[in-house]
Predict the 3D structure of the following.
Amino acid sequence: MSENHPNNPLQGLTLEHILLKLEEHYGWSGLSDKVKINCFKKDPSIKSSLKFLRKTPWARKEVEELYLDTFTERSPWHKSIKRVTQ
């Protein structure tokens, strides 16, 4: 049963989409500087990164936060978040 969460800015985005957009924006080197995980440093690929992020909740949360910080505009009170790109 899927629920609609209108206040979730990541609603409808896959982890693969998030990772592809971040890699396109920062490159693997820049991404590894922003999120300190080895799958972005040593022989990085979308496939290996997705595998790691899907089984490592703390790392996935960091990647999702980086996506929000990079591609959304947050109000000063963090109550409303607006997507800049998809």
